[in-house]
Design goal:
With 155 residues, this protein is mainly alpha-helical. 66% of the residues lie in helices and 0% in strands. It has a domain at 22-90. The N and C termini lie far apart (82 Å).
Amino acid sequence: MSRKVKQNQDSEIQKPQPPKSAFYHFLEEASLKIKQKDPKSKQSTIAKKAKEMFQNLTDEEIQKYNLQEEKELEKYKKDYAEYKKKKKEDVQELPNKTKKTQESKSKSKSQDKSTSDKNDKEVAKKEKEPAKQAIKKEPAKQSSSLTFTVRYCSG
């Protein structure tokens, strides 16, 4: 079983993968055995068989997989701490932008938004106008074949 690693395109630093559980360590070994016995078996049936096998293991056998999990967890904690340090260093190394450039960018963005909002409103009005005209042009249809029944209740 392999995990897909997301690659961060912005920086070369990759976040470490979390450790596998004891069951997944067992599943890797058990799936190979199950595939050797029945190569045409589906992944879902392999997982079900492995689950049953894992539940039937003794505590001593499970301890082996728990140790593997603990080792990976320790390694993950170290790698994650290094990852955080490197990430902080990368953020600090970014050049500081002056207030003028930040202000000019924010103004241009707000102007772009206001003009696009106006354009959107105008387009929406134009789309609604033909529908209103179509409604006004069509007179209400009257049907002479309608009959109304009035019941008088004595009461």
